[in-house]
Amino acid sequence: MSDDVRLTVAAHLQRARARTAQLTDAVDDDDLVRQHSPIMSPLVWDLAHVGNQEELWLVRDVGGREPVRRDIDELYDAFKHPRRDRPALPLLDPQEARRYIAQVRDKALDVLDRVRLDERRLVADGFAFGMIVQHEQQHDETMLATHQLRTGDPVLSADPPPAATAAVSGEVFIPGGPFTMGTDTEPWALDNERPAHTVHVPAFFIDAAPVTNAQYADFIAAGGYDDPRWWSPRGWAHRQEAGLTAPMHWHRDGDGWAYTRFGRTTRVIRDEPVVHVCFFEAQAYAAWAGRRLPTEAEWEKAARFDPVTGRSRRFPWGDEAPSSRHANLGQRHLAPAPVGAYPQGASPSGVHQLIGDVWEWVDSGFHGYPGFQVFPYAEYSQVFFGGDYKVLRGGSFGTDAAACRGTFRNWDHPIRRQIFSGFRCARDATPGERAAGPELA
Question: What tens digit of pLDDT does each residue of 287-307 get?
Answer without folding.
Answer: 999 999 999 999 999 999 998
